[in-house]
Amino acid sequence: MTDYDVLAEVYEWLISDAKLPPAEFAASFDDVLSLLPPNAHVLDCSCGTGQLAVGLAGRGLRVVATDASEAMVRRTAELSEEFGASVQAVRANWEELPDHFEDDTFDMVFCVGNSLHHAAGATGRAAALESMSRLLRPGGRLVLTSRTWELVRARGSRLDIRDRLVRRNGRDALVIYRWEIAPQWEDEHHIEIAIAQVDATGSVRVRSELLSCWPYRHDQLEAELHQAGLRTEMSTFDLEAENYMVVASKAQTPVRPT
Ligand SMILES: C[S@@+](CC[C@H](N)C(=O)[O-])C[C@H]1O[C@@H](n2cnc3c(N)ncnc32)[C@H](O)[C@@H]1O
């Protein structure tokens, strides 16, 4: 069992109202999607429950969705079926991706929704970014979204109890995040996520998972992207905003003089 196999069952309680419909999730990437050729081949390499992948398929793109968690991949396949979408869903962690797909396959790779911090430290991140880069065709783009860890670390360890119930599938739940911030940036950090569902009889069922993560600074991420052969084209990084998006492109193959 990997991290997220338990949360997969109740993951929709963690997705914002705005991003729950697949079409809306995809629409949040309209700007980068407009850069794609028609019928482009795209990969969502930490697909979670598949909202983005299914939304992208709804745009007529050829979509592959992968995730380290078997349960997440199953949910993505179920969501695709529910929407009649054509998504190839495969269980693979980032380092395994080159075992499943040829180099230079995808026009765009998405790694979104606070996923990359689960790569184990600088070494794990380098391996993950290297895999994503290999799979991109020359000129293809990696679209990555991230928490602003500079902000998260400044707040220190804490308990974040949401101030309203979240309603999904006719059921209310309270969502709790417990942040365990380690002394040093490079240390393993933890986020414990608990979803306490209240059923019709008033009883409470809690599903929780303790997730490991390794934060990184924005400038460190840019250097690591560069190391993986990716050049940052655009970044929305802002020290005062909770999240940011980076778009990085893979260098075109250099033309060798004859
Ligand atoms: C916070 S969720 C984000 C899911 C989805 N992208 C979204 O925005 O809703 C992080 C996802 O990353 C996946 N993940 C964690 N470590 C991974 C790894 N090493 N390789 C691939 N996926 C991983 C988890 O299984 C989980 O589905």
Characterization of this structure:
The chain is of the alpha/beta class. It folds into 2 domains: 7-150 and 215-250, Vaccinia Virus protein VP39 (Rossmann fold, 3-Layer(aba) Sandwich); 155-213, N-terminal domain of TfIIb (Single Sheet), CATH 2.20.25. It has 8 helices and 12 strands. The strands form 2 sheets. It has a 7-stranded mixed β-sheet with strand order 3-2-1-4-5-12-11, sandwiched between helices. The longest helix is centred in the middle third of the chain and has 15 residues, at 121-135. The protein is globular. It binds S-adenosylmethionine (SAM). S-adenosylmethionine is lined by residues 4, 15, 46-48, 67-69, 72, 93-94, 112-115, 118-119. It comes from Kribbella sindirgiensis. GO terms for molecular function: methyltransferase activity. Residues 42-140 form the Methyltransferase domain. Pfam families: Methyltransf_25.
